[in-house]
Specification:
The protein is mainly alpha-helical. The protein contains 16 helices and 3 strands. Helices cover 56% and strands 3% of the residues. 44% of the residues are buried. Bound molecules: acetyl coenzyme *A and oxaloacetate ion. Acetyl coenzyme *A binds next to helix 15. GO terms for molecular function: citrate synthase activity. Belongs to the citrate synthase family.
Length: 370
C-alpha cells in the first residue's frame, strides 16, 4: 500500500454533476462559460439537482419554493444574538447551520423526498443566516426575506435593508453561478464522506462548511482581500509579491490542484471586477489584482483561481471581507446538496486505507516502568 499525498490524481467516486476535463468545467455537461453568460443561479440550482435545465414553469416553481423556505426559525436568530460579536463568520455559519437541524421536524427523515425538501430549505436559509449574522453583530435587527426576490437579490436586501441595484444583483448572481459546483473539491468530498455513513444532510453540509473555511480552499477569497489591503496600491505590488515568492510563501488566489493552465471561472470574475471598478469609480483593487496576476504568473507560472478576482468583485459590491467565504458556502450549498443526494442514491461507505509509517513490534510497558 502506497499513499498518494493529498489524494492527488485519485479518482474516488463517479458523479454526473460536474466535470473538469482538459481544463474545461461543465455542470451536467454544460460549459461554465455558457452558464456564466446566460443562466441565473436558480436555473443552475435546478440543473444541479434535477440534471436538466428547467422550463419556465419548473423554474417558477423552484423559485417559489426557495422563496417560501427562506425564513429561518426565530430560535436561530436568537442563537446568533448570543454569538460573540467578533466571532469568525464561517464558525458562526457552521454553528447556525448545524442548529437548523434541531428545528427541522424532517431532520432525520432519510426519504429522497424529505432530503430534497431539506436541500431546498438549506439553499434558501444559508443566505438568510449570513445576512442576519452580519447585521446582528453590528447591533442591528435581522431583516426577513422579501417575497418574490431571487436568492441574490434577497441576500443583498437582507444584508443592507435597501433595495439593491440591478447591476449588484446581476454581479452577485453570476458569482453564485460560478461557485456553485466543482467536481470532487475538498468540501464536497467532506460532505460525501459524512453522508456515506448514512448520516443526515445537515451533518453533510456542516462538514462541508468546515472544510470550505480553510485558506487553501474557500477561505482564500478573504485572504486575497486581506493581501490587497495590506499591499494598498498597485505600485507596491511588485516588491510585496517578489519578496513573498522569494520566501516561498503562497500567494492566495493562485494555483489549483486540477487546473494547471488556468481556472476557466477566473476570467469571468476578472471582467466583473473591472466593470464594477469602473462603475464604483474605484479601480484600485482591479489594477492591483492585474498587476499581481502579471507578477505571479511571470515569476512562478501560476494562474489565478476562482478566489482571486472574486475578492475585488465582492469588495466593489460593498460586502464585508469576512462574508466572502460564507457567500461561497451559500453558492456551493447547491453543489454540496446535489452531491449528497447523488451519494444517497447509490451509497457505499467511503473508507480508504492509510499506509502505516509508525513503529512496529512495540511491547506494552506498564506505567510504573515508563
Ligand atoms: C476554491 C478553491 O479552493 S481554489 C484554491 C484556493 N486556495 C488558494 O488560492 C491558496 C493558494 N494556493 C494553494 O495553496 C495551492 O495552489 C492549492 C492548495 C490550491 C493547490 O495545492 P496543491 O495541488 O497541493 O499544490 P501544492 O501546494 O503542492 O503546490 C505545488 C507547488 O506550487 C507552489 N504553489 C502552489 N500554489 C502556490 C501559490 N498560491 N503561491 C505560491 N506558490 C504556490 C507550492 O509552493 C509548490 O511549490 P514547490 O513544488 O516548490 O514546493
Ligand atoms: O476544486 C477544487 O479543488 C477547489 C475549487 O476550485 C472549488 O472548490 O471551486
Amino acid at each position: 500500500m502506497t499513499a498518494t499525498k493529498g489524494l492527488e490524481g485519485i479518482v474516488a467516486t463517479t458523479s454526473s454533476i460536474s466535470s473538469i476535463i482538459d481544463g474545461v468545467l461543465t455542470y451536467r455537461g454544460i460549459n461554465i462559460d455558457d452558464l456564466a453568460e446566460n443562466a441565473t443561479f436558480e436555473e443552475v440550482v435546478y440543473l444541479l439537482w434535477y440534471g436538466k435545465l428547467p422550463n419556465r414553469s419548473e423554474l417558477d416553481q423552484l423559485t417559489k419554493e426557495l422563496n417560501a423556505a427562506a425564513n429561518v426559525p426565530g430560535e436561530i436568530i436568537n442563537l446568533i444574538k448570543l454569538f460573540p460579536k467578533d466571532v469568525n463568520s464561517m464558525a458562526a455559519l457552521r454553528t447556525a447551520v448545524s442548529s437548523l437541524a434541531l428545528y427541522d421536524a424532517e431532520a432525520n427523515d432519510m426519504s429522497p423526498e424529505a432530503n430534497l425538501r431539506k436541500a431546498i430549505r438549506l439553499q434558501a436559509q444559508l443566505p438568510t443566516i449570513i445576512a442576519a449574522f452580519a447585521r446582528i453583530r453590528e447591533g442591528k435587527e435581522a431583516i426577513a426575506p422579501k417575497a418574490g426576490a431571487s436568492l441574490a437579490e434577497n441576500f443583498l436586501y437582507m444584508l443592507t435593508g435597501k433595495q439593491p441595484e440591478k447591476i449588484a444583483i446581476e454581479a452577485l448572481d453570476k458569482a453564485l453561478v460560478l461557485h456553485a459546483d466543482h467536481e470532487l473539491n475538498a468540501s464536497t468530498f467532506a460532505a460525501r464522506v459524512t453522508v456515506a455513513t448514512l448520516s443526515d444532510i445537515y451533518s453533510g453540509i456542516v462538514s462541508a462548511i468546515g472544510a470550505l473555511k480553510g485558506p487553501l480552499h474557500g477561505g482564500a477569497n478573504e485572504a486575497v482581500m486581506a493581501m490587497l489591503e495590506e499591499i494598498g496600491t498597485a505600485d507596491k505590488a511588485n516588491s510585496y509579491i517578489t519578496e513573498k515568492l522569494a520566501n516561498k510563501e503562497k500567494i492566495m488566489g493562485f494555483g489549483h490542484r486540477v487546473y494547471k493552465n488556468g481556472d476557466p471561472r477566473a476570467k469571468h470574475l476578472q471582467k466583473m471586477s473591472e466593470e464594477l471598478g469602473k462603475i464604483t469609480g474605484n479601480m484600485n483593487w482591479y489594477n492591483m489584482s492585474i498587476q499581481i496576476e502579471e507578477l505571479v504568473t511571470g515569476q512562478k507560472g501560476l494562474k489565478p483561481n476562482v478566489d482571486f478576482y472574486s475578492a475585488s468583485v465582492y469588495t466593489s459590491l460593498e460586502i464585508p471581507r469576512d462574508l466572502f467565504t460564507p457567500i461561497f458556502a451559500f453558492s456551493r450549498t447547491s453543489g454540496w446538496t446535489a452531491h449528497i443526494l447523488e451519494q444517497y442514491s447509490d451509497n457505499r461507505l467511503i473508507r480508504p486505507r492509510a499506509e502505516y509509517t509508525g513503529p512496529s513490534h512495540q511491547a506494552y510497558t506498564p506505567i510504573e516502568q515508563r
